[in-house]
Amino acid sequence: MKSPLVLLVVVVLAVIGLSGSARAACGPNARCPADASNYLLPHPNCSQYYLCNHGTACEQNCPPGQHFNSYHRQCEAPETACCDIYIPCNPTA
Ligand SMILES: *[C@@H]1O[C@H](CO)[C@@H](O)[C@H](O)[C@H]1NC(C)=O
Predict the structure, then answer these.
(1) Residue 15 phi/psi, 5° resolution?
(2) Using a 6 Å CB cutoff, which residues line ligand 1?
């Protein structure tokens, strides 16, 4: 009668591991306008941004190789997004 317990432990550990890595990275954010939906905010990581819906922000990833432009509020090539100060910045209008 040992294997059911072992199985349970494995399942519990797997669930904990999954919820840790796939942490839904959503939460209240004071910079999200309470009345706005699908409002994008810059993230400390240039490859990511926050998607706001009614005061709650969820972390999102830009498409691979793109950075978030906080002026245009969209993901762009790093050279025009001007997020990473170590990448030459050629902003578009
Ligand atoms: C920024 O986010 C990307 C995409 O999730 C990730 O691959 C990268 O490691 C992150 N960089 C830092 C400095 O956290």
Answers:
(1) -65, -45
(2) 45, 47-48, 61
How far apart (Å, rounded) are the C-alpha atoms in residues 56 and 43? 14
Taking the chain (93 residues) in runs of 10, the rounded mean pLDDT of each run is: 52 45 77 94 97 96 98 97 96 88
Residue with tokens 């902003």: 91
Instruction: Look at residue 24 in the predicted model and tell me its pLDDT.
Output: 58
Supply the residue whose CA is at minimum distance from atom 2 of ligand 1.
Answer: 47
Q: Which fold has domain 24-92?
A: Antimicrobial Protein, Tachycitin; Chain A (2.170.140)
Q: Which atom of ligand 1 is nearest to the CA of 45?
A: 1
Domain boundaries, the chain: 24-92
